[in-house]
Amino acid sequence: MNHVKLLFFATIRERAGTRTLEMDIPEDMTVQGLKEKLANDIPALKESMLSVLVTVNREYAFDEAVIPPNAEIGMFPPVSGG
Amino acid sequence: MQPSILPTIFSITEDEIDLNALLSQVTLPSTGAAAIFTGMVRGETRRGDAHDTDYLEYEAYIPMAEEKMKQVADEIRAKWESIEGIAIVQRIGKLYPKTPTVLIACTAAHRDTGVFEAARYGIDRLKEIVPIWKREVSPDGQFWVEGDYIPKPGE
Questions:
Q1: Distances from the Cα of B134 to the Cαs of A61, A63, B6, B38, B92, in angstroms?
Q2: Is residue B148 assigned to a domain?
Q3: Is B73 helix (H, G, I), strand (E, B) or coil?
Q4: The domain spanning residue B25 has which CATH number?
Q5: pTM score > 0.90 for this model?
Q6: Who among B67, B149, B152 is closest to A58 (CB)?
Q7: For chain B, which residues score pLDDT lower than 50?
Q8: Residues B74-117: pLDDT tens digits?
Q9: Is A5 touching B (CB cutoff 8 A)?
Q10: Contact B126 A81 (CB under 8 A)
Q11: Which residue of A has its CA nearest to B92?
């Protein structure tokens, strides 16, 4: 298993009810797999996982990417700075 | 000029944006032009869905946001070789109407070498890829402002 740290922001943080979450995931889990796991584990996030942006170690990551050990994973809606 | 000495400033801050201090940090002896964009909290919106705003509350994924600001600065330098200094600063926290929230400053020797376009590019890219969000609080309630840009691989 790989240990990873999730960071939630904006609407995702509010729906998750927490800023951070640590968990163990299978070594071959992809970004898509993680989104499916969270949609399953945290019902309040189910709808958000359809459109969430995901980062792995502070770079945007896409569905097929395999999550490396000790990854810092960000999850958030499209950005709105400025 | 050595690229390594060109000043590039990027930060997320809860403090007031100090335009004069930032401008002096991106001004070289050879600088003759600066284009500065700043956005502020708009208290009265008339275009589109007209409404008033009490305040905006910003949050950021700070370490990633600063890395992406550096990436935006690198992209500016790749597009406009004339650019000397670049400052990209986003203020976060609770910000009220008329308050500057973001600043992009680009400097160059002369005004006709791309400084205006570079600053415009900087704010446009910040709004696409830098992880910052704002929640708007108005007399009618509150809502998260969400962008519509989906970053592509490599961004």
A1: 23, 26, 31, 16, 9
A2: no
A3: helix
A4: 3.90.1170.40
A5: yes
A6: B67
A7: 1
A8: 999 999 999 999 999 999 999 999 999 999 999 999 999 999 99
A9: no
A10: yes
A11: A81
